[in-house]
Amino acid sequence: MSEIDAKKCFDVALDLVKQAGKVVREAIKKKKNIETKSSAVDLVTESDKAVEKMLISGLSEAFPDHKFIGEESVSAGQKCVLTDEPTWIIDPIDGTMNFVHSFPYTCISVGLWVKKAALVGIVYNPVLEQMFTAIKGQGAFLNGEKISVSGETELGKALVFSEMGTSLDPEKVNTVLTNITNLMPKVHGLRGLGTAALGMSSVAAGWGDIFFHFGLCCWDMAASTLILTEAGGYVCDTEGGPFDIMRRRVLCASSPELAEKISKLLKQYQPERDGVTK
Length: 278
Ligand code: IPD
Fold this sequence. Notes:
Layout: H1 6-27, E1 34-36, E2 43-45, H2 46-62, E3 67-70, H3 71-75, E4 87-94, H4 96-100, E5 107-114, E6 117-125, E7 130-135, E8 140-142, E9 145-147, E10 159-161, H5 170-183, E11 189-191, H6 196-204, E12 210-214, H7 218-221, H8 224-230, E13 234-236, E14 249-253, H9 256-263
This protein binds D-MYO-inositol-1-phosphate.
D-MYO-inositol-1-phosphate (IPD) binds at residues 71, 91, 94-96, 163, 165-166, 194-196, 215-217, 220.
């Protein structure tokens, strides 16, 4: 495998993400063609497909030997397999439900992983002009300004982000509701933005202290987990063990202490791993 030029990869991806942002910014104001995927609340629009195509075509032109995992390509039948090869992991529109309703919390998420570790992460909300970026070892930035986590360690002072998710499986729904019921009296506040990538990036920016979620996919986490750790945050599995991007669960926190405290309270849920049946 030839040496990867992280800065070049970042620059090419950033330019493409900005172009894709124009598409999302225009399309969010208009009527969308909506299709459903795994459930009645798991949506895709023509813009998700167009943005993914645009990103993959631009990146593969610049980096012909790189691999891709894209949300909509996987939905269309492509295998979701992460190898040691440089792999761009793409969510063309994270928060598709929000996008459909013109709720301006939606973003493009692009992560480059090499040898199963994150090297570059970009999360861009083109509607609110929030560009979160990170290159491994070089810090995390919002619109070019360095960001860092809050460093909060007390659960009672923590603002916690999670998501309802796109699965209507009764066991999953029960997990979501049980966690809300159990956590509400113990934390400062609970929030759900409707986009996991922006939820994790918000913790990176210090706008909240914890993000946890069961049932998301590698493309929801590939960029924002790097942004979080480069901002000084801590990422692990929801039970507290090492983070595994294909395991479909994540716990991000402003400090390891906070991650440990909340992991002990969470009702756990294990969806099928990414790459097993898709
Ligand atoms: C979804 C969003 C949502 C989360 C789901 C994701 P999508 O991504 O991040 O907040 O709860 O698990 O699948 O489908 O809008 O790209």
